[in-house]
Task: structure prediction
Amino acid sequence: MRNILFAAAAALLVSILLTPYLIRLFSRQGFGQEIREEGPQGHASKRGTPVMGGVAILIALWAGYLTAHLISALTSPDGQTPTASGLLVLLLTTALGAVGFLDDLIKIRRQRNLGLNKTAKMVGQLVVAVTFAILALQFENERGLSPASVNLSFVRDISLISFGVIGFVIVCYVIVSGWSNAVNFTDGLDGLAGGASAMVLATYVVISFWQFRYDCGSPTPQMGCYDVRDPLDLALVAAAGMGACIGFLWWNAAPAKIFMGDTGSLALGGLVAGLSMVTRTELLMIVIGGLFMVEVMSVVLQIAVFRTTRRRLFRMAPFHHHFELAGWAETTVIIRFWLLSAICCGLGLGLFYSEWLGAVGG
Result:
């Protein structure tokens, strides 16, 4: 538990101290945000706000994780070391952050709101997801557990639904691209994606630590135990991500002094996608990340309805812009969407705990 606190605290400290430096650096370089012309008129004042703040989140994420392991090594002769599961999730996050960084850089250089085209971004996500999927099925421990599983999972693997290796690679791509795009769509208001991501990651701190407490690999496994490789290390990753988001939110909350950009949103989407697969909670993540699901579905429905009826279902998609154009203040939308995210996370934790109670006969 102490290492989890160290990871969160170190990531928060690095994020909150590094972000203002990036604000000054990006401002001098002219790395400013371009605004969609058809968007809410109140957003016009945000043009030129420094972007690519996701760099601070990524650096803080790694700093928190590595600091926790360094302290563990210095304070305990048999301290915890980095694991395959933790490192793979961090590498997935970083690789998607690199795709987002390239997207942001193109937007800045060409001074437009469009960076990589859809095909280029899809190829980048495909390469990253396939690499992660292949590696996540390797590195079996002494119990034969690899970081990920070819079975579909809710709170545990569903043994009746197995994809096989090729099927898992395809499913992994769907999960990674789906969640990275969902967080990307959510990142349209000051602090909205950062705050929601912090809540989701806090939920995964609880889930992965609970899986560690009731690990089937412990000397005295209990009923309802979990077959998850490296759950404690995954708690460190989630805690570091949570701390990084909270530290960044200090500067990103309305009125934002910096935006995370695709660098941050794609990275955070990859982080929650990776955690859902290695903790065997892929379907549960749909509940926990309910806000992200609403945002991405609003875009899908908007496109589908417009193409079939030539009419718009919402004033504007993603969904948060619909309420802005309806007259809601930006801060009102943000706070109420944060509340929605908190409700989804609480419901997800409730389902997770109720499943455990059922497993132990409670």
